[in-house]
Amino acid sequence: ASGPVAESQLILFYWIFWAAVFVFVTVGGALLYTIVRYRRRDGDGDPEQIHGHKALEITWTILPSLVLAVIAVPTIMTIFHNANSPDPDGLQVKVVAHQWWWEFQYVNPEDPQMELVTANELHIPVGEVVNLDLNSEDVLHSFWIPKIAGKVDLVPNERNTMWIQASDPGEYLGQCAEFCGVAHALMRFTVIAEPRSDFDTWLRHQASESLEPVDPLAIEGRELFEGQAQCFSCHTVDGLRKSRGTKGPNLTHVASRRYIAAGILENTQSSMRSWLENPDSIKPGNIMFREALVYNDPDMKLTGMQIEALVAFLQTLK
Ligand code: CUA
Question: How far is CA 280 from the centre of its chain?
Fold first, then answer.
């Protein structure tokens, strides 16, 4: 565990685990003892016939109640600990789950210039409380960063909240933990916990507009993006006039991310090319493959050169 939420969950897990071991050993031991001690021997007649045993019945009512109390008290304490953020005024991030990727919106009512929307990569300042607002765009999902915190469901039209905190800097794996359709297992994300100064640099950079491409191939890619390929109708790129779509991930700084396609491919030129060539072979059922004309209208299909141009453009979005 890294962080107070996962630590409290781990302590609770071990507490319940040892309570279960106690029950297993006591019940199993008593059973074994009885089988051996009172087994049928040669010459045994019928055993003594009895009905009821008050002392035993009281014992096996009280003992399990005690075990349940031992489990219930720390469980309820952990639930309250994890439900109540120790710093409600700390950093706020809105998480929106989509089939099958994650949207992260950094909210900052005091400084709208520092607000931003990104996808599949959650940056947090190490050692600080981060308050999450959880929502879903379509079906049930569940937010889980095994080493930091989890799991809380994301429910359409219902706001859930949780808080997280990482005690060590580093990269953490996140994964959707509620079956949400065919690509559920491919709905991952990356959490990057970094010192406050690095986090601020990241935030400032991500809140800025994209840079103008200078390379001719990349310029051609941008024209495709905002033209024939129609990427703009589903994706936002801050700094481009037409690209205001919100159906797919915000791509303003896609090249700065470590992974693409919700944590399943390293962000390299060749994986970006494979993704654009045939996204369905990488993430079956994804909306882009189902709905974008370039994959559904044979006349609109992208040529190899066009894909190269799009990749070149996307790589300038650092
Ligand atoms: Cu989203 Cu499983």
Answer: 22
